[in-house]
Amino acid sequence: MLEDWIREVATTTSLVVEGVSAVIVAYAVAEAVVRLLGTFRLHSGTDKAQVAHDTKEDIRLRLGRWLALALELLLGADILRTAVAPSWSEIGQLAAIATIRTALNFFLQREIDAAQSRKCASSLRDPPSASVG
Q1: Residue 122 neighbours by CB under 8 Å, 6+ apart
Q2: Mean pLDDT, residues 77-93
Q3: pLDDT exceeds 50 at position 132
Q4: Which of 47, 54, 82, 105 is 20 to 30 A from 38, alpha carbon to alpha carbon?
Q5: Is the dihedral of CA 100, 103, 109, 114 positive or negative?
């Protein structure tokens, strides 16, 4: 009886976490699209290509961070779902899902870190020009 109640709470909580993850992904994609469309409108001039590249890189980084967060939440939801008296089949499924999501998150985070390093190196190499007033 108590085990059934705990299982129900764990299942409901995992569904809520999955819903939150879906909202995060939807928000992240919508934000990326809006920012990308804004890039096309705002940037005109001689250095348009470089500005557009930098802006797209910023959009990619932000989207990647949101996706990494959603992946971590989904992994937590999967663990929560199988936390109460799991069967061997459920444990196997969790292991497969956890491996895939962890690998995705690892490579996504590695890409985010590399892009952030490139951005920092670029800003050190090309500091913004200061105007003397």
Answers
A1: none
A2: 86
A3: no
A4: 105
A5: negative
- Residue 133, pLDDT > 50, answer no
For 35, the token pair is: 């920012």
88-125 and 48-81 helices, crossing angle to 10°? 160
CB-CB contact of 14 with 78 (8 Å): yes
Helix/strand/coil (H, E, C) string of the chain? CHHHHHHHHHHHHHHHHHHHHHHHHHHHHHHHHHHHHHHHHHCCCCCHHHHHHHHHHHHHHHHHHHHHHHHHHHHHHHHHHCCCCCCHHHHHHHHHHHHHHHHHHHHHHHHHHHHHHHHHHHHHHCCCCCCCC
Report the amino acid identity of residue 34: V
Give mean pLDDT, residues 41-65. 74
Integer Cα distance of 18 and 12 in angstroms: 10
Does the pLDDT value for residue 19 go beyond 80?
yes
CA gap 89, 1 in Å, rounded: 23
